[in-house]
Amino acid sequence: MMKSLMIAAVLFFTSLSTAVRANDLTEFDYPLLLGDWYWFSNTDEGVQSEGASYRAMNIKFKSNYRFVIRLLQVDGSVDEWDGIYDIDETTITFSSYDQPEQHHSYMLSYNQFMLDGARFTKLAPENLPGNWRSSQISGQDVGESVSELAISLRPDFLFSAEVSGKNGKKIEHRGIYFIEDDRIVLIYEDGQHDSQFQLGSDTLTLTNKQFGMEAIMVRE
């Protein structure tokens, strides 16, 4: 019945989510900020700033309010610094021991970040985007009710997930995902869930050690 499949789907996603704790990614106030953001100059000459010409810029934001900034110069050299950041609805502040404090206005979406008018794009890890289908699902309760899981992870950080029950019924979720280190969070209309992942060239393994859950996915 549809009701039993809905319960199984909730169990599946809940089992893949980690227990609530202080560093739970689902509790971070600005989850769409997390990840690697890239800006690229549209000319070979780059953009001039303080006597240097820059071709690209990468900003990594972490949930512990740490950041790393890397600037690629036209001559191939890289400037790098890190520190802590503070953020509210309109302004982000970078603080570093060897740099003056910087205040910048910003606008943010799930895959675009405007920093003082400069447009940054978020990039996913290589091989993560694609269509994945489960080859094996293990875990108490879930394994008894769910026959298959299919997840489509798009390069622009949108996803769709379909849970198929052994009774032939299906439940679908659509939303936004973000990642940090080996953790992936799916945000959809009814909630959000955090799980660990391990990525191979053609396999994606989702696990939760606390609940003994594992879903091995293969690329379609």
From TrEMBL:
Keywords: Signal. It comes from the Bacteria. Residues 1-22 form the signal peptide. This is WD40 repeat protein. It comes from Photobacterium aphoticum.
